[in-house]
Amino acid sequence: METRYTHSPEDIRHYSTEQLRREFLVETIFVPGEVKLTYTHNDRMIFGGVMPKNEALSIELSSELGVSYFLERRELGVINIGGPGSIIIEGTEEQMNKQDGYYIGKETKELAFKSDNPDHPAKFYIVSTPAHHKYPNVKISINKITPRLAGEPETLNQRRIYQYIHPNICESCQLQMGYTILSQGSSWNTMPSHTHERRMETYLYFDMEEDMRVFHLMGIPDETKHLVVANEQACISPSWSIHSGVGTKDYSFIWAMCGENITYDDMDHVPMDKLR
């Protein structure tokens, strides 16, 4: 498990492109037959990919956590963006097709991930945050979520927002997680932009062709930076940073948030004339 540390807005003012990418972009999320995780000190979120092939995979402990098993003091969100597979939770196997999600509560001891077909493996994107209470495990299907419709074709930001781990769907301590799909012909997400000092986020961009890119905007509103992001790469967004993006074509992304406020619409909007 790789560790990423926190930074202040002053830190990144003089960062080169290489430094910015090294600190805030995770370029490899899915590795066949492996679990690949990143531990960010921003709210102590752990995120990454589990891509089983011939054998089931489980999450091995890292010394950074100081616990006897992975979810002893954590909760977990999962969304499968690959082929069909399954999650084995305390000996019970649950089928996970593409776009299926799962909330797995604190104190779940046994957890493993499988693919149905090693030639078309599942890609489980997982996010874990510290938890103080055990809530029930809940399987979440995209077909049972009524999406929030946002944006307009005229402003190139028409999109559907599926709230997987959200008070409308299931209880959690502080983790929220969802799936946003941009409509054909749209390329912008979350513009006008915003910040929220009360929580941070990570973004996994995917469903992109090989030569597609998303320009992920970050930084303080009056001194913005950007990361050029390829398919199945993820960005860390501190609470003080804007988080917006524009792609060379429509795309999808998974957002995950944690912090002291679980209200989805709790945000500080940034007027367009304040962006620099």
TrEMBL record:
Q: What class of enzyme is it?
A: isomerase
Highest taxon, organism lineage: Bacteria
Which GO BP annotation is one of this protein's?
pectin catabolic process
How is the cofactor bound, as the UniProt entry phrases it?
Binds 1 zinc ion per subunit.
One GO molecular-function entry: 4-deoxy-L-threo-5-hexosulose-uronate ketol-isomerase activity
User: Gene3D superfamilies, per this entry?
Assistant: Jelly Rolls, pectin degrading enzyme 5-keto 4- deoxyuronate isomerase, domain 1
What this protein needs as a cofactor is: Zn(2+)
* Pathway named in the protein's UniProt entry: Glycan metabolism; pectin degradation; 2-dehydro-3-deoxy-D-gluconate from pectin: step 4/5
Known EC number(s)? Answer: 5.3.1.17
Residues recorded as binding Zn(2+), renumbered to this chain, are H194, H196, E201, H243
Ordered alphabetically, the record's keywords are: Isomerase, Metal-binding, Zinc
Catalysed reactions, semicolon-separated: 5-dehydro-4-deoxy-D-glucuronate = 3-deoxy-D-glycero-2,5-hexodiulosonate
Tell me the protein family, please. Belongs to the KduI family.
Q: What is this protein called?
A: 4-deoxy-L-threo-5-hexosulose-uronate ketol-isomerase
